[in-house]
Specification:
heterodimer; A: alpha+beta; Sulfite Reductase Hemoprotein, domain 1; 4 domains; about 35% helix; B: alpha/beta; TIM Barrel; 8 strands; about 20% strand
Chain lengths: ~550, ~170
């Protein structure tokens, strides 16, 4: 967990005071809505269908219990008692009045949180592996790098008015849980031949209406060059990224139009001119940031204590939850526990203020006061002693946070869709809710195995449908909601965009069709262990298409 | 449109000269970038200062050979959401060593002043009178800066080292 120092805290407070003045000028008519729009977006304030929405950052997905209570307070005091966790380690509040935005931001600042650059054409919240610091397969903690970059990109004097938004993700483990290949810049921590840890730099990935998997432009970047190289990428992009067409303004289009090699050469050229300047990272500067991350003081425990083993064999409900929600921790005797925010019939990623407070209390009791937010829109208690798992599970059930569906078919990622969003063409949340009801039987979900469904309500792809094992995209045809289906997408180290299954289907049919897709998979898989995404990889979408569309 | 220079609202001593018109001698003028490149040697022979308004889609590298003889470069912000001028400004100051007046022109609002200052601008054609009057307040809102830029303000990264006594060794 990173604690702000006096500089970080001062900057956040100064930013709130500046925004307070901007809101005052807007309300007094001194700023036009056009002018104000850019300013509010850079503080995470959107104008949605019904109200203003605030998107607050949860940098690299790490929250303290006090910060979670702060979010609960905001939900209670300024919103309608709940918040929505997004796919980019942010939280959104949908019903905040513009007049109360500055006080909301001040409340967030009081617990070391902010909404800076969660929107707008600037460097957005830096995301990373929600298991950072506890994953067994990690080289080192990527959050230190995310924090260094968070600071460097905050109110950057050159890159606050880029051609378009700019998203960076960092992963430091063998298995990529941060979807780095579908970000504007994806950084993978890697070890070179000499054993030194540095970064593989991937650019130009992204979803939206023109999806691309990112290209590696630097296989190994030394740590000292971390900021200077990113600065060089941003400088090339700021000058040459397209500004004539909003749909062609992301860096992926520039990389695609120039070609990755030419783009890499431009960056290299710019970088050579600045790499030995003020941005070269002194190890002491890195150490000063790292020193403000605190780590739990673990007890010496052994794995799989007898009470846990007994509960797993005797209590089927507990075993089902354990199998879906509990993951290996690097520390013996501890576990990583995912809290499902996907209750059957509920909107994905929502948490009530009461749930947030309960999670904060459980984090204090069972997880050294720490909570994580993952891109799958679930929460994580990252340091739970295995001996406490049964008790934690009982507590989570009381707060409807123990749905045994993590990583399974009803653990659906969905954008807010037409229920909230002014860009959407179709509803997302009701589709997700209906699908959770179709697959509510835990035994059925378990027999289907790991399967990610992603739903976006429009082509902007906030629900990341391209990289869902099953992707669902809402489109509009003659005023009616239709849904396109893609199969075989994935966001990990083998990232791949899904393949279109066939013609789009109506709102009333989408749940039936997805059920048919899943049934087709169960019939087509070679053995129960073959994951959905592997069956699609082996067979392509044709056999699915035949089965699903034959009856229609 | 008020001009702010060195934090004060001042009279503009430069006159803009359209591309076809002749540049009157003895008066500081600003000419377009393409004209400047075409007529540079003649224009630089004049006795009065010469300024260039440079488009934001063309590399400032083309100006490099003349920068020691140019009194002013004006960079354009056709809309305040178009941020190319920030990179151009930093390159002019930090890479090409331009020491003359660097002016921001176009849709320049108070909310950009600090970014512009940090990128190296020292004069501002401000779109609104009230924003020009608010220059001092707007540029003093922050005293914490993470990024090193040509303006030489101390960065947080550096201040942290100074605080723990590492500064001297690290430098």
């Amino acid at each position: 967990m990173y604690r702000y120092d006096e500089f970080d805290q001062a900057l956040v407070e100064q930013r709130v005071s500046e925004f307070r003045d901007q809101v005052r000028r807007r309300l007094a008519g001194e700023l036009t809505e056009d002018e104000f729009k850019i300013l509010r977006l850079m503080n995470g304030v959107y104008l949605q269908l019904h109200a203003y929405m605030l998107r607050a950052a949860i940098p690299y997905g790490t929250l303290s219990s006090d910060q979670m209570r702060g979010l609960a307070r905001v939900a209670q005091r300024y919103d309608r008692g709940y918040g929505h966790f997004t796919t980019r380690q942010n939280i959104q509040f949908n019903w905040i009045k513009l007049e109360e935005m500055p006080d909301t931001l001040a409340d967030l600042a009081s617990v070391g949180l902010h909404a800076m650059q969660t929107s707008g054409n600037c460097v957005r919240n830096i995301t990373t592996d929600q298991w950072a610091g506890v994953a067994a397969d990690e080289f080192e903690d990527p959050r230190i790098w995310a924090e260094i970059l968070r600071q460097h990109s905050t109110l950057h004097p050159e890159f606050s008015f880029l051609p378009r938004k700019f998203k960076v993700a960092i992963s430091a483990a063998a298995h990529d849980r941060a979807a780095v290949k579908v970000h504007d810049i994806g950084l993978r921590m890697v070890r070179d031949g000499a054993g030194e840890v540095g970064f593989e730099v991937i650019v130009g990935g992204g979803l939206g209406r023109t999806p691309f998997i990112g290209k590696t432009i630097k296989p190994f970047l030394h740590k000292r060059d971390f900021l200077s190289y990113i600065e060089a990428i941003l400088r090339v992009y700021n000058q040459h990224g397209r500004r004539d067409n909003i749909y062609k303004a992301r860096i992926k289009i520039l990389v695609h139009e120039l070609g990755a090699e030419k783009f890499a050469a431009e960056v290299e050229n710019e970088w050579r001119a600045i790499k030995n300047g003020a941005l070269a990272l002194d190890p002491a500067v890195i150490a000063a940031v790292a020193a403000r991350f605190s780590y739990p003081n673990y007890e010496r425990l052994s794995d799989n204590p007898s009470a846990l083993a007994r509960a797993r064999s005797e209590d089927r409900a507990f075993a089902a939850w354990f199998d879906s929600a509990v993951s290996n921790h690097r520390q013996p005797g501890y576990a990583i526990v995912t809290l499902s925010l996907k209750p059957i019939g509920g909107p994905p990623g929502d948490a009530t203020a009461a749930q947030m407070d309960a999670i904060a209390d459980l984090a204090d009791r069972f997880s050294f006061g720490e909570i994580r937010v993952g891109h799958e829109q679930n929460l994580v208690l990252p340091h739970v002693a295995q001996r406490d798992l049964v008790e934690l599970w009982q507590q989570l059930q009381m707060h409807e946070l123990a749905t045994p569906n993590v990583g399974l078919v009803s653990d659906i990622i969905a954008c807010p869709g037409l229920d909230y969003c002014s860009l959407a063409n179709a509803r997302s949340i009701p589709v997700a809710q209906e699908l959770t009801r179709r697959f509510r039987d835990p035994a059925l979900a378990r027999s289907i195995g790991r399967l990610h469904i992603n739903i976006s309500g429009c082509i902007n792809a906030c629900g990341h449908h391209h990289i869902g094992h099953i992707g669902i995209l809402g489109v509009e045809k003659n005023g009616e909601e239709f849904y396109q289906i893609t199969l075989g997408g994935r966001a990990d180290e083998d990232a791949k965009l899904g393949t279109l299954l066939g013609p789009a289907v109506r709102y009333g049919e989408i749940a039936d069709v997805i059920e048919d897709v899943v049934e087709a998979y169960v019939a087509l898989r070679q053995r129960p262990e073959e994951l959905f995404v592997d069956t699609v990889k082996r067979l392509g979408v044709e056999p699915f298409k035949e089965r699903v569309y034959a009856a229609r | 449109m008020p001009l702010v220079k060195s934090g004060q609202i001042v009279e503009d001593r430069f006159v803009r000269v359209a591309d076809g018109a002749s540049a009157p001698d003895g008066i500081a003028v600003i000419v377009g970038g393409a004209r400047f490149l075409a007529e540079a040697e003649v224009l630089l022979q004049r006795s009065a200062p010469i300024g260039v308004v440079w488009p934001n889609d063309r590399s400032v590298g083309a100006l490099a050979p003349y920068l020691d003889r140019v009194a002013l470069v004006a960079l354009m912000f056709p809309s305040f959401r178009d941020g190319r001028g920030y990179s151009q400004a930093r390159l002019l100051r930090e890479r090409h060593g331009f020491r003359g007046e660097l002016r921001a022109t176009g849709q320049v609002l108070r909310d950009q002043f600090l970014f512009l200052l940090r990128a190296g601008f020292d004069s501002f054609e401000v779109a609104k009178d009230a924003d020009a009057a608010a220059f001092a307040v707007s540029t003093r809102r922050f005293d914490v800066f993470y990024q090193p830029s040509g303006d030489g303000r101390a960065t947080v990264f550096r201040q942290r080292l100074d605080r723990i006594g590492w500064g001297a060794q690290a430098r």
